[in-house]
From TrEMBL:
InterPro entries: SPACA1. Residues 43-54 have a biased composition (Low complexity). The gene is Spaca1. One of its GO terms (biological process) is acrosome assembly. Residues 56-79 have a biased composition (Acidic residues). It comes from the Eukaryota. Residues 293-307 have a biased composition (Basic and acidic residues). Keywords: Membrane, Signal, Transmembrane, Transmembrane helix. This is Sperm acrosome membrane-associated protein 1 isoform X2. Residues 1-29 form the signal peptide. GO terms for cellular component: acrosomal membrane.
Length: 315
């Protein structure tokens, strides 16, 4: 072999070695990148998923916001409806009639206008027991009596049935079908009954007694006597109460009352003593003798006798 031929294969070997090394480095680099790719891809995938979720959440927020906007309108409308349809509590007033038919007030205790606690909504019909017992005539005299059935306005919505009651017998139905019945007094007392019917149903019944004229006179005189007796008794009671109060006042203020009466008794005694002294003086004056009048001549003579004689005249 020639030396040139031996050097050529050596250079070729070196070249091949370098190529192998380069290929090994490239393969190792590709293996490293291949080993690092799964984590990177996973991170990338997670980032992509988070971005997708963010976009989805944004879309969901937008959808929910739009849904809220869409539902806000109906809720406001429903609030208005609820405000208009507030649950209203109602209570009923007392019926004007204890029996038969009457009226009562329907009172609203919640939802009144103007913030009031209670307000009257309407007035409606109410009913009580049918039997109203014995009633009083609306007017009466010594000859006639006017009776009235239980009724409310309008009167023409009811039917009225008058009956003449008889003991141990069936009542007699009268021809009068109005709410007022005028009856003349008879020699015997009579009893009448009126049934008020609404749709052929008895809603009220009342009875009346019509007395005779003599019984009416006796009742009127008895009522006058009762009035006088009540007046006398009332006056006597008030007088007794007044006396009791005076006695209580005297007992409470006994010292002052005693002093007042003592002063009054002393003043009366003084006045009585003065009057008795005046009476005695007047009596003594009346009993004293009167002086007898004497003539003027005797008086002058006595004066001359008693008068002294002057000295010049003695000679």
């Amino acid at each position: 072999m020639s030396p040139g031929g031996a050097g050529c294969p050596a250079g070729l070997l070196l070249t091949l070695g370098w190529l192998l090394l380069a290929s090994l480095r490239a393969s190792s680099a590709t293996n490293v990148t291949a080993l690092q790719d799964p984590g990177f891809t996973r991170q990338a995938e997670s980032q992509a998923e988070s971005q997708a979720e963010g976009q989805g959440e944004g879309e969901n927020d937008e959808d929910s916001y739009s849904e809220v906007e869409e539902t806000e309108g109906p809720t406001e409308a429903t609030d208005d409806v609820l405000n208009k349809t507030v649950v209203k509590e109602v209570e009923f007033g007392m019926c004007t009639a204890t029996c038969g038919i009457g009226f009562r007030e329907v009172i609203l205790t919640n939802g009144c206008p103007g913030g009031e606690s209670k307000c009257i909504v309407r007035v409606e019909e109410c009913r009580g027991p049918v039997d109203c017992g014995w009633g009083q005539p609306i007017s009466e005299s010594f000859e006639n009596v006017k009776l009235a059935c239980i009724r409310i306005s309008p009167e023409n919505r009811f039917k009225y049935m008058w009956k003449l009651l008889r003991s141990n017998q069936q009542p007699i139905i009268l021809a009068n079908d109005s709410a007022i019945l005028e009856v003349r007094r008879d020699v015997h007392p009579r009893a009448f009954e009126c049934d008020t019917l609404d749709s052929n149903e008895v809603v009220a019944s009342v009875r009346f007694t019509v007395y005779t004229m003599s019984e009416m006179q006796m009742r009127s005189s008895r009522s006058d006597t009762d009035i006088a007796l009540v007046f006398v008794l009332t006056t006597g009671v008030f007088f007794c109460i007044f006396i009791i109060f005076i006695l209580i006042f005297i007992i409470i203020n006994w010292v002052a009352v005693k002093a007042f009466w003592a002063d009054k008794v002393s003043t009366t005694e003084i006045h009585s003593e003065i009057s008795s002294m005046k009476y005695k003086d007047s009596a003594s004056l009346d009993q004293a003798p009167t002086e007898v009048p004497r003539p003027e001549e005797e008086a002058l003579s006595e004066w001359h006798e008693e008068a002294p004689i002057p000295v010049g005249d003695e000679s």
